[in-house]
Write a structure and sequence with these properties.
- The protein has an eight-stranded mixed sheet with strand order 2-1-3-4-5-8-10-9. Strands 6-7 form a two-stranded antiparallel sheet.
- It is an alpha+beta fold and 190 residues long.
- Strand 9 (174-176) and strand 10 (184-188) form a beta hairpin.
- It has one domain (6-188).
- The relative contact order is 0.13.
- Helices cover 23% and strands 21% of the residues.
- It binds copper (II) ion.
- Copper (II) ion binds next to strand 8.
- Copper (II) ion (CU) binds at residues 119, 123, 147, 149, 186.
């Protein structure tokens, strides 16, 4: 894989120019990337370039099927912003985390493995309790800044992570979707 072309970089500048510097308002004005090139740049922004440079980029369709936008040479997979949420939430996943993601999409039990996910652009979730919520908890979405995630059944009941649920302080390490098969650790990276 080569470095992004000038055209792709221009798209990135356009994406950045469309956002405001304040996190919360920024989520409200976010425009999901439209072209494949823009989706690839967006997906790669979820992780350090040393990770995303060689990653495959796959888009998740509404039916849960994954579409390959770019085949990478590395083990990691980056997924662009989920257009069904108001925030910019691309991610880069290791192979175990991809298995976990597929289990979540298919509503099947996740494998007994530990996976890792980068979300350095932040995350936007309808609910910190319900993995399949499609409206905000009590009118309030769970919005997290740049973070990494540890997924898999082994993280259940890990000490040191806030299990408040709805209304959790997302600036400190916390548990998302507690007491569900998709319980995972959310760890702010900044
Ligand atoms: Cu996340």
């Amino acid at each position: 894989m080569s470095i992004p072309t000038a055209a792709v970089r221009l798209v990135l500048v356009a994406i950045l120019a469309g956002s405001t510097p304040t996190g919360i308002v920024w989520g409200a004005v976010h425009q999901p990337p439209k072209s494949d090139a823009a989706k690839i740049v967006n997906a790669m922004s979820a992780a350090p370039s040393a990770v995303s440079r060689n990653a495959s980029v796959m888009e998740m369709a509404a039916d849960g099927n994954m579409k390959m936008l770019r085949k990478g040479t590395g083990e990691w997979t980056c997924v662009p912003d989920d257009p069904s949420t108001a925030g910019n939430d691309p991610m880069c996943l290791d192979p175990n985390a991809m298995e976990w993601l597929h289990a979540y999409i298919g509503k099947s039990p996740p494998p007994a493995k530990v996976g890792f996910i980068y979300m350095l652009q932040g995350g936007w979730d309808f609910s910190n309790l319900d993995p399949y919520a499609n409206k905000p908890d009590g009118g309030k979405a769970t919005i997290t800044g740049p973070h990494v995630m540890v997924v898999g059944p082994a993280v259940k009941a890990a000490p040191g992570y806030d299990r408040t649920g709805a209304g959790v302080n997302t600036a400190a390490p916390y548990v998302m979707w507690k007491d569900t098969p998709y319980e995972h650790l959310m760890i702010p990276a900044r």
